[in-house]
Amino acid sequence: MSFKRISLLASIATVVLVTTSCGTTPSQQETKPVVVVPPPSPIKSSEPTKEVLKPATFADLPGWAKDDLRQAWPAFLASCEVLIKKADWKEPCTVARDVDVHSEKAVRLFFESFLVPHQVVNSDGTYDGLVTGYYEPVLRGARKRAGPYQTPLYRAPDDLLTVDLKNLYPELNGMRLKGRVVGNKVVPYASRGELAQSNALAGKELVWVDDPIEAFFLQVQGSGRVQLADAKETIRLAYADQNGHPYKSIGRYLVDKGEMTLEQASAQNIKAWAAAHPGRQQELLNANPSYIFFKEERLSDPGKGPKGALGVPLTPLRSMAVDPQYIPLGAPVYLATTYPGKDAPLQRLVMAQDTGSAIKSAVRGDLFWGFGADVASKAGSMKQRGTMWVLLPKSSGKSGAQ
Known about the structure:
Blueprint (H helix, E strand, L loop, with lengths): L2 H19 L13 E3 L15 E3 L17 H11 L3 H10 L7 H11 E6 L8 E8 L1 E5 L8 E4 L6 E4 L11 E7 L2 E3 L4 H6 L7 E5 L2 H10 L2 E5 L4 E10 L7 H7 L10 H10 L4 H6 L5 E6 L21 E3 L10 E7 L6 E10 L10 E7 L1 H8 L2 E11 L9
Parallel strand pairs: 4-17, 5-11, 14-16
Antiparallel strand pairs: 1-8, 2-3, 3-18, 4-18, 5-10, 6-10, 7-8, 8-9, 11-12, 12-13, 14-17, 15-16, 15-18
């Protein structure tokens, strides 16, 4: 490795340390370093780290015999649309096409014949981790700004620049540069607060909605539906891009300000606080410098969820976001946790079909609950401890992806 190459890697490493350890929004100077953050969609290797997978048996999976695996079958077939392109998955995904979907016995026999469970282990040797929930919100909006519809949701701006570093330096796989060009320099893109104070996104409005807090949580969830009053239709807004700033929890911000305890920092309580403090809403939102841009998608089948990072529609309570550094996207994962606010076991087979900026460790999952107000409270209050087993083809050993 040349001296110049070593120097560049050291410089980028320094930028990463600075931008991830500083909680304040940097000043907008053209000479500051470009923000480097992990991408919202996976660009790390989809192969799991072998050391985090411990061989297990189906007898080790609590509640495995009680789970009606037929309910997970549609999500598994969706995963197979992608997995069948991988050598180890070609045989099981081909055989799956002929399994009797109405027979629980046949579905169970398939999983136990072709796949092997491996318990997911944290880097410190522990077996449990945090399991949260997310959902697809439904907002009220309009194509044109009028009446209660005063909060815009934006398309990705034309000047947002993305540089995938792995194409130049494989050892930096998992990092991207986000910014914009000013003169002959690349500088960080504007933060949420800076965008709110400027007119930089004018003309990029997709729709206007009636609640700035719900618009914020739409960004947190990454996608959602908007019922358009003027067009008399419902559309889906899907993730398009992000401004490059790291995600910061506004719940943590309120906790640090002494406004609520950590146990109280649920989505519902945050929304209630914002409603009670309208003059501080923008202050609260600006605590998260990350900003999400959307693209419009036609809602062809209202019964299907949005597409996750795998590129297939998510299935309520059978799809989960994971860290693809440890769990390969598309793979079945057996989840053993509890329902939000209860001790009742939530034990079921789910599919690793999505990722998230806050999902960063081995035993860490974000369970997709569905869409609408009925599931919002459950998803928003889910902060449980759980354990996970990833099911991989018998021929794969621990990699399951070659």
